[in-house]
Amino acid sequence: MTKAVILLSGGLDSATTLAIAGAEGFEAYALSFRYGQRHQIEIESAARVAQALQVTEHLVLDIDLRRFGGSALTGDLAVPKDRGLEQMEEGIPVTYVPARNTVFLSCALAWAEVLEASDIFIGVNALDYSGYPDCRPEYIAAYERMANLATKLGIEGHRSIEIHAPLIQLTKAQIIRKGLGLGLDYALTCSCYDPSADGRPCRRCDACRLRAKGFAEAGAADPLLAGFGPSAP
């Protein structure tokens, strides 16, 4: 099997990306990060997803982006709630973590070199998303060019390094249908930017609202909400 490094946050998109990589026959090496985010629930979700999808190895790295701050996910800024889709399309929200995907992809690239793997998967999406600049096709294409210029693997390898972004042109509903078709259990995932201590999603942040929109348009019930019973907010 061909080895691939898959960035795994524990969210809906990255879990679907991991399922796609497995379905395409890649031997999966999952990479997650404790980067100073508001909560650790997504790390627990990533571990559950990695175990369920039987990755070869799941590595969790510690990188303290909270030292920089600048984001509602790594600082004391409030997470925006109850925003409509029109508001989500206006500018870059405070939940954007500066250079996060560049940092994560660089770590994935380093591990890929050690593994002699020329394939890296990332679950970015440029349709139903919150406007992050490092989720766009132009960014992924530019990073791939850089990766092939800046690494021994890219210069001396028998294959070019490829950054796979299989969700980038899909709606959230299409992503969910794809994952369900692959047998992915979305109850294992966590999308919320501001969950409670027990993992209950707030259902009001951008990520929760986009997830709810996706499941509604896919004509499916979100099993994560069912797990908290009728008292879920």
Number-wise, the strands total 5
CATH superfamily: HUPs
Number of helices: 9
| Biggest sheet, spatial arrangement of strands | 3-2-1-4-5
Main β sheet profile: 5 strands, parallel
Number of domains: 1
Parts with pLDDT < 50 across at least 5 consecutive residues = none
Q: Alpha-carbon distance between the termini?
A: 44 Å
CATH C-level class: Alpha Beta
CATH structural architecture: 3-Layer(aba) Sandwich
Derived from helix and strand composition plus strand pairing, the structural class reads: alpha/beta
Shape from CA axes?
Answer: globular
Question: Strand-residue fraction?
Answer: 5-15%
Q: What are the secondary-structure elements, in order, as H or E?
A: EHEHEHHEHHEHHH
